[in-house]
Design goal:
Layout lengths: L1 E4 L3 H12 L4 E5 L10 E4 L2 E4 L10 H9 L4 E5 L1 E6 L2 E3 L4 H5 L6 H16 L11 H9 L1 H16 L8 H9 L6 E5 L2 H15 L3 E4 L1 E9 L2 E9 L2 E5 L3 E4 L3 H7 E2 L3 H9 L2 E11 L6 E6 L8 E4 H5 L4 E9 L10 H15 L7 E14 L19 E3 L11 H19 L1
Parallel strand pairs: 1-2, 1-13, 2-9, 6-16, 10-14, 13-20
Antiparallel strand pairs: 3-4, 5-8, 6-7, 10-11, 11-12, 15-18, 15-19, 16-17, 17-18
Amino acid sequence: MIAILGGGISGLTAAYFLSKKGHKVLILEKEGDVGGLAASFEKEGEFFPLTYHHIMECDLEWQNLCKELGLKIFWRGVKIGFHTNKGIYRIATPFDILKFAPLKFQDRIRLGLLGLRLMLDKNWKKYQKMTAENFIIKMAGKKVYERIFLHLLKSKFGKDYKKITASWLAFRLSKRESKGIFGFVDRGLKEFVSRLEKKIKDNNGEIVKNALINQIKIENNKISEISYTLGNKLVKIQPDLVLNTLPGPVFLELTKGLPTDLGKRIEKIRYRSVVSCIVKLNKKLSDYYWLNILDKQTSFATIFDYGRISGRKDSILYLSSYVDSGDKFWNLDKKEIFNRYIEDLEKIYPQARENVEWFEVFKLRYAKAIYECGYENYCLNIKTSVDNLFFSSMDLFPPMRNIGFAIKNAKEASKIIASFKK
C-alpha cells in the first residue's frame, strides 16, 4: 500500500496516476475536504477557490489532466495592468512598454530587452547563484528594478527580498504572464478537485478525511508505521511506500527517527504565509483581471478580479498579503483584515465599499517557500535518503508555486514511485 500524506493537488494527482495503474493508495487528509491550497468555499450556492488560480499556456500537464477528467478549459484574453500615480498601464506588448510613462524612454527599452532575452533563453537555472535584485539591475538597470520589481519582491518575500534567487524570477518572467492569456476550468476549481477525488475512488483508492497524523515512525531507514486519529479512534498503518506532500516543517514535527542529514535540510526551508480576502461587489469594478499596485501604500500588492476571467457581470476580488505567521496582520480577526483591505482598496477605487455584497477571509500558513540563493543546495528531491519515502511539495523548488507545477511534480513522483513498487 502507498500512503500519501496530504490531500491537496499534489496528493490527489499522484494518487490518481498511481491508482490508475492499479496501485493501492491511501490519502490521509487532516481537513474535512480535499484540495489543500486549491480548496474552495461555498457562498450563495456557488463555489470559489480560497486563493486565485488560473491556467497558463505553459501548464501542459494541467491541461492534459483536465482532458482526462472530461473538463473543458475556457481561455480568455484579459487585461493585466500596473497601477501608478500616473495612471494604469499595460506591458503586454513591446508597444505597451514603449508607452510606459513611469519609466524614462531608455529604461523602457531596457525592460523590453530583458523580456525578450528571457523569452528566448530557457536556461533559467544558470541564474541560481545570483540574487534577483542583482540580476535585474545588471540586465535592465537600477531604475527598472526600483520601479517595477522591488515592490514585487518585497510583497512576496518581505525582509528576505534581497536574498531571493534570480532563477525564480527569470523563470516567472520567461512564461510571459503579462501577455494576459489565461484559462479557467469549466465549472471551476471545485469541479476539478471533485472529479480527481471521484476517479481515485473509482480506481479503488481510499481517501480518509479528518485524519490527524500523530506520528510517522522511521526504523532501519524505513517508514515502518504511521499513526493517526480519526474521531476518537487511533489507527496505525504499515505502508510499503510513502509520498509526503505536506510542507517540510509539518512533516518534520510528525516524524520520529528521521536521518539527521534529511532533517537538517528540511529545517533550512522557510515559508511565507498568506492572508486571502475574497470580496464580492455587485458591479464590475474595472476591466482589469490582474492589477499590480506600484505606487500606493496598500496591504496587498495585487488585485485579481475573478469576474473578468469567468465572464461575470459583477466582481469577485482576490486581495492577499504574504506575511510571516508572527506578524500582527496575521493575528487580526477577519473583520479587521477586511476593513484594512477595503480601506486600501478605496485608495484606488473610492466607490468600492458601497458595492460590497459579502467577504470571506482565509489564512494559509505554508503558502510559499522562500527561494533564496543557495536553495538548490538543500531543497529536497522526489526520492529521499529514507528507503521508502518520497516528496512532492514546494520543498522540491518548483519554479512557480501554482497548480500546474504541483501537477507536473506529482505526476513525475508517481512515475518514480511506480518504478520502486515494481
